[in-house]
Description:
CATH class: Alpha Beta
CATH architecture: 4-Layer Sandwich
Radius of gyration: 16 Å
Number of helices: 4
Shape: globular
Structural class: alpha+beta
Number of domains: 1
Distance between the termini: 36 Å
Strand order of the largest sheet: 5-6-9-10-11
Helix content: 25-40%
CATH superfamily: Aminohydrolase, N-terminal nucleophile (Ntn) domain
Largest sheet: 5 strands, antiparallel
Strand content: 25-35%
Amino acid sequence: xxxxxxxxxxxxxxxxxxxxxxxxxxxxxxxxxxxxxxxxxxxxxxxxxxxxxxxxxxxxxxxxxxxxxxxxxxxxxxxxxxxxxxxxxxxxxxxxxxxxxxxxxxxxxxxxxxxxxxxxxxxxxxxxxxxxxxxxxxxxxxxxxxxxxxxxxxxxxxxxxxxxxxxxxxxxxxxxxxxxxxxxxxxxxxxxxx
Length: 194
C-alpha cells in the first residue's frame, strides 16, 4: 500500500511518496526510509511488493545515465537499456515473471523513474509511458493523488517550488482517503541537465 506521485515540469521533475507500511495482519507503521530511492543518477519510486523497493535500493545497478541525454534519445535509452536491466534484476530476484510462450513478462511492482529531469512510468508489463498532462501516480492512493494534483496544478507552467507544495498537498489528501498511505511524506526534485 503506497502513494507515489510525480510531476513533470519544463526543466525538472518532482517525485514524492508517503512512508506508511502495512501488512496482511492489519498492522501499520512508518518506514525509516523513503519509498523513493536514489540509485546512481536516478530517483526511483516503487509501488507494490515491498521486496521490489528493497531490490531496487540494495541490488539494482542501473546503466550509467549520460548526463546530457534528453528527448527521444533519453527515451530510447530508457526503453533499450534501463528497462531491460530493471527487468533482469527483478526476474533474478523473484519479483518478475519472464515471458513464457504466450504469457508476457510481468513484474509485481509499478515504478516511477526520474532520469535527467524526465518522469517515466514503468508498468507491470515493463512498458513505459509519458503523460501529456505531466502528472503521474502509482500505488493504492494513486487515484486520490492524481485528482488532488490535477486540482492543485492551476497553470501549464509549474516551477519546482510549486511542484513540491502540490506533491505534499496531494500526498496528504491521498493519506486521508487511502488507508494504505500515511505521513510523513518525502519529496525530491531533479533538474534537467542541458
